[in-house]
Amino acid sequence: MIVTLSGELGAGKTTLVRGMLRELGWLGAVKSPSYALVEHYTISSLYFYHFDFYRFEDSNEWDATGFAEYFRPDAICVIEWPERIAGCLAPVDVAAVLAHCESGRTLMLRAGTQPGKACLDAYSAATA
Asked: For residue 36, what is the domain's CATH number?
């Protein structure tokens, strides 16, 4: 599953990832991958990778990282600043856009694949 998070600095991308991990049962610390580029969490048999490509200058840096091997069927890959690696990803399952507004923040979600739609349908049912 590939989930992208777009939004300006301070929009809440890492906070959203922290919430996702808590809901999956992760009890440990959740760090921003701004300097490491990726943080890895294993929850039971699920691999969860949190990427931050803010420091990438262009998508050519993607090839040098070797990160493509992380994108496999038994993994959730959540990507902050996906614009920095445009054209390098397989189809995105869920795209999220976070923004500041007067009352706090907004979150817009869009499914890009059938598994992404199923994920958002389950989310809608759980939060209704």
From this structure: 3.40.50.300
Residue % of the chain over a pLDDT of 70? 100
At 86-113, the pLDDT tens digits run 888 889 999 999 988 888 888 999 999 9
How many domains is the chain partitioned into structurally? Answer: 1
Mention every residue, 6+ apart, whose C-beta is less than 8 A from residue 105: 11, 12, 98, 99
Q: What are the two backbone dihedrals, phi and then psi, of residue 109, each rounded to the nearest 5 degrees?
A: -120, 140
Residue 73, domain extent: 2-127
Cα 11 to Cα 111: distance, rounded to the nearest angstrom: 20
The answer to whether the beta carbons of residues 98 and 80 sit under 8 Å apart is no
